[in-house]
Each structure stands twice: as structure tokens, then as C-alpha cells.
Design brief:
alpha+beta; about 575 residues
Length: about 575
């Protein structure tokens, strides 16, 4: 196996360029680019600090396999299908390991991130701990960046002489520089030239199927890809499984992209992981993720031939959830896995699905009680086995299976009051509480927002006696008290935005509000309770109002047994 080595500047020139060794491209089996701005900036910092950034893995081939270009100008929401390259028998180099690094280099040196280009603070570079940034990088609008921030691509691809490059920066700084600053600029330019121009910049292992076409078949390459990426956390199981699927099904990524686009157009966040696990369950392969399942004869072929039916079943269940239940957005579903048994019924027993009842009770109690938390694969398999026998959805049977698996469906008083600010289930409860709110606005930033009735900033100012000092300097209300469910309400973006509630105390915010508004938010009518010195009394009274509204959800204790008032 060859191990060529080139400068980073040279390697970047290979990307999307058929005139350089056929060009470097991304194979269909690669997942989307996932690095954030901060990760990109840290990569460039690591390079200037001369930290190793690992070897790349390249497959040189003439095979007519689906591949795509690297993205130069990255924006959220880009579709991978827009970057496909027509299949061809020309020489090409496909990147099997190193996509995130190369894509980051390409964005920083040849493109932009959300319309902004990469800049370096040329006067940074102070000694710092290994986990901290030493050389400061950031993405800016070119028109807004001023010295000492310099556009990094202009330095890397500018004058080939470091002395000339440093002199240009000093001469055009636009301000008087000290000798120490001039020296720092010269040193840093030297570091940039050393790390980006040196031929020792980065190496890559090369699987060459051009010189020896029999040495690496496409199946061999997929196996190499999986083994190269299965260590650590660079790829998830779903990425590895999808690589197997897309290797034999050319349009797998396009089909997956279209399905996820349809599922997520209403503020949901379904991903490959959910879809692939659902495929395994529907095709009687069990819920557990195992690579060998996708290697079994017929499994990938089944997914390909039955994809349209699988996609319709998932879409139908989501349409039901949005149209017939209280769940209106992603945040109201702590886990999407609770939907898989419903997709199973819709896929295998379509007529029974049309007549199914109590689905909202199933979703509500399972989600609030966390029945599908942790590792629910065994639970999914047990539920599917029972549904397969029944050939329909039955709430009593489903709840019986869940309890037999040792999972609770009881919503105790203690668990209910844990649903405070920042909890996974507060949005689920608020979707049930605030039915009239719009959870699918035209813009993401207009989503309803959970807000503190008594602002955190004001509660933090309330002090109590400190037994150690004898002074009133101890914060009276800790985080759990400030974030209590009874101190939370749901506001529209307009109410909580500029000029809205913000840090307004309740005695001001609720003053003049109509009774219908107070009723909607379950606000005690006693205005004295709206004052900050009555915070604890307000919480107790509002807890009473909330408990009355949701008493049907809570488990009642009697005779030593816990009995849920609804949904078994």
C-alpha cells in the first residue's frame, strides 16, 4: 500500500479537481459533513500548533461508483444530492477516512461557512493549555473584519515568500505596531508557511485499484471503510450500516434524504438512526443494531424493494401524530422510538391501523413515564412480537408487555414535578397544556418558548441569612427552585422577544391581563402572590392549579398499590 505525502496546500488543490490525480471526491457511503464552526477553527489551531491530524485513507479507482464533490460554501440545509458527480470510468480518488478534516480545510481555505470566511488573529498565539485555543480563528463577513484579523486563505495562497507576506501584513495593518508585534507577525507567518507549505504536511494511505483491479473490489473497500471508521466516535452505527446499504443501492442516500426532508418539514428531527432501526424491526430482524444484519442475504435487497412502503408507513404515523394527538413538534417527543410499534402496525396491518384507538394514551403515558428510555431494544422486540400475534394495536396488551419488561408507566407526583425548566418532558406537557399555540411557525426562531414566571435574574438577587457569616449573603432560591415546573409558562416568540416579558416580574407582567390569559397559564388570581416576596406561596398555589388540571395523569396511591387514573 502506497503512502504519498503532500503539503496541506497541495492536498486542498486535489479536492474536486480532476486535473490532479483524477481529483479527490467523496464516495456515496460517506455521511454528511457534521463539524461545527468551532471544530473547524480548532483544526486550524491544531495545525499551527503542529499537532498530528492523522493519516487519510484514499481509494484510487476507475470504477463507476456514485460520488460527490466536497462543499466549498457550506450552509445548513444543503442537500448532498446537489453535489453528485455523474458516474464515470475516469481515474478518481475517493476519500474513505478523513472527510471531516478535508472538508474543513476546503471550507477554510477555498470557501465559506454560512457566507462567512475564515480569519486568523495574527497577534494571537499565546502559550496555553493543550485543551485551549492558542491561535484564534473565526468566521467573519469580509467587510466587517479588521486587523489583527486577516483572511487566512490570502495568507496561505498569497506570496510564496514568508518575508514578503509578513511585510505586506505589517505595511497594511492600518495602525502603528510595536517591534514586539512586528516580530510576532513574522513568527506566525513563518509557522503558517511551515505547516501549510511543507511537503510533510499530511500523508494518505492509498488503496490502488487502477494498477491492480483485482486487489480491492468494491466490497473490499466498503469493508475497509467500516473498519477504518468503527473505532472511536467518528461514525455512529447508523453511518456504518448505511454504508453497507448504499454500497449496493445507488440511490439509497437520495431516498433517505427525501424521506428525512419530508419527515422534518414540520419542526421534527428524525434521522438515519431512527429510519434504519425501523427498517430492521419491520423486516423482522430485531431492533438491535448489528452490522452483520445488513450483511445477511436478502436484508439490503428487502429494504430497497420495500422502501416506498416503509417510507409511507413512517409518514402516515407521523401525520397521525401531528393531526390527531397533542404532539406538535420535536421537543414534545423525548424519544422517537415510541413510534416504531405504531409504524409496525401501520406497515403490516393497514386495515387494523385505520381502526386503532387509544394511540394518544399510549404515546402520552409512555413518553411522560420514560418507558422507552435507556436501551429499549428488548422492549421493542417484545412489543412487536405481541402486535404480530394480535395483528392490531391493543393498549392493554401493549402496557402489559411494557410492565413485564420491568418498565414503569406510572407518573408519580415526584416524577411529575421533575418536569421543570430544561427537562426532556416539559415540552410534551406543554404541548398537552397549550393546545392553541402554533408549533410550526414559518421561521424556527418563532417557536414558542418556555419562560420563567419569576425571572431567574430576580430570584438570584433574593438573599437569606448565612449561618457561617451571620450576614444576609446566601442565595435563597437554588436552581431546582427557580426552574420548578410551577415557575414555568409557555410564551409566544413575540411575548418573550425584544420589548416583551424578558425579566419583568409577574406583578407587572400579569397586571391588566384578561382572565382568559390567567386561566390559560393557570395563574393564581390573588395578586399578592405575584410579588417576589411571596414566591414560595405562589409556587404552592400554582402547583395546586396544575395538579387539578393534570390529575388524570397522576398515579394515585391507595392500599399500598399505585393506580394510574387513566391509560392503565
Amino acid at each position: 500500500m502506497k503512502t504519498p505525502k503532500h503539503s496541506l496546500r497541495k492536498i486542498v488543490s486535489f479536492l474536486n479537481n480532476p486535473d490532479e490525480e483524477g481529483g479527490f471526491w467523496l464516495p456515496n457511503i460517506q455521511r454528511p459533513f457534521v463539524w461545527s464552526e468551532d471544530q473547524i477553527c480548532r483544526l486550524f489551531d491544531s495545525i499551527l500548533r503542529e499537532y498530528p491530524i492523522s493519516t487519510l485513507l484514499i481509494w484510487k479507482t476507475r470504477a463507476e461508483v456514485r460520488h460527490r464533490k466536497f462543499i466549498d460554501n457550506y450552509r445548513n440545509g444543503l442537500r448532498l444530492s446537489d453535489f453528485y458527480v455523474p458516474e464515470n470510468g475516469r481515474k478518481k480518488c475517493l476519500v474513505l477516512d478523513g472527510q471531516q478534516r478535508l472538508q474543513s480545510l476546503f471550507i477554510g481555505l477555498c470557501g465559506s461557512y454560512e457566507g462567512r470566511e475564515l480569519f486568523l488573529d495574527i497577534l494571537s498565539g499565546e502559550v496555553s493549555a493543550p485543551d485551549d485555543v492558542k491561535f484564534r480563528f473565526a468566521f467573519f463577513d469580509s467587510a466587517q473584519a479588521t486587523f489583527p484579523w486577516i483572511k487566512f486563505k490570502d495568507l496561505v495562497f498569497g506570496p510564496t515568500n514568508p518575508f514578503t507576506a509578513a511585510k505586506n501584513l505589517i505595511d497594511h495593518a492600518g495602525l502603528a505596531l510595536s517591534e514586539e508585534q512586528k516580530e510576532k507577525i513574522s513568527q506566525h507567518v513563518g509557522v503558517v508557511f511551515k505547516t501549510f507549505h511543507s511537503d510533510d504536511g499530511i500523508s494518505y494511505q492509498e488503496l490502488d485499484s487502477i494498477e491492480n483491479t483485482e486487489l480491492y473490489t468494491e466490497d473490499d473497500v466498503v469493508e475497509v471503510f467500516i473498519r477504518a471508521n468503527s473505532g472511536g466516535t467518528r461514525l455512529g452505527k447508523s453511518d456504518l450500516l448505511f454504508s453497507l446499504l448504499s454500497a449496493s443501492w445507488d440511490v439509497a442516500d437520495k431516498k433517505m434524504e427525501d424521506l428525512l426532508g419530508s419527515l422534518n418539514r414540520h419542526e421534527f428531527a428524525f434521522d438515519r438512526d431512527f429510519v434504519l432501526k425501523t427498517c430492521l424491526v419491520l423486516l423482522s430482524q430485531g431492533a438491535r443494531y448489528e452490522v452483520q444484519k445488513f450483511r445477511k442475504e436478502g436484508v439490503r435487497e428487502d429494504i430497497e424493494t420495500k422502501w416506498d412502503d416503509i417510507a409511507r408507513a413512517i409518514m402516515d404515523v407521523l401525520d397521525f401524530v401531528r393531526g390527531k394527538t397533542f404532539i406538535q413538534c420535536d421537543k414534545a417527543l423525548p424519544t422517537y422510538l415510541v413510534l416504531i410499534p405504531l409504524v409496525y402496525v401501520r406497515y403490516h396491518f393497514h386495515d387494523a391501523w385505520k381502526k386503532a384507538i387509544d394511540l394518544d394514551s399510549y404515546l402520552l403515558r409512555c413518553s411522560l413515564a420514560g418507558a422507552f428510555s435507556g436501551q429499549p431494544d428488548n422492549l421493542l422486540d417484545a412489543l412487536v412480537k405481541k402486535l404480530s400475534e394480535l395483528k392490531e394495536f391493543n393498549l392493554d396488551e401493549a402496557f402489559g408487555i411494557i410492565r413485564n419488561q420491568g418498565r414503569s408507566l406510572e407518573l408519580t407526583d415526584d416524577r411529575f414535578w421533575q418536569m421543570g425548566y430544561g427537562s426532556k418532558t416539559i415540552h410534551l406537557l406543554f404541548n398537552l397544556w397549550y393546545r392553541q399555540f402554533n408549533y410550526t411557525p414559518a421561521y424556527d426562531n418563532n417557536l414558542p418558548q418556555v419562560d420563567h414566571i419569576f425571572p431567574q435574574s430576580e430570584l438570584k438577587k433574593v438573599k437569606t441569612d448565612n449561618p457561617k457569616t451571620g450576614r444576609k449573603d446566601l442565595m435563597k432560591y437554588r436552581e431546582a427552585e427557580r426552574n420548578h415546573l410551577a415557575n414555568c409558562m409557555l410564551l409566544s416568540r413575540e411575548e418573550n422577544g425584544a420589548g416583551g416579558k424578558s425579566d419583568t416580574l409577574p406583578e407587572t407582567w400579569f397586571s391588566g391581563k384578561p382572565e382568559s390569559y390567567l386561566d390559560m397559564h393557570l395563574i393564581p388570581r390573588d395578586k399578592d402572590l405575584w410579588k417576589i416576596d411571596r414566591f414560595e406561596d405562589f409556587i404552592e398555589e400554582r402547583k395546586r392549579l396544575i395538579r387539578e388540571k393534570f390529575s388524570y395523569l397522576l398515579t394515585q396511591k391507595g392500599g399500598g398499590n399505585e393506580v394510574a387514573q387513566t391509560g392503565q
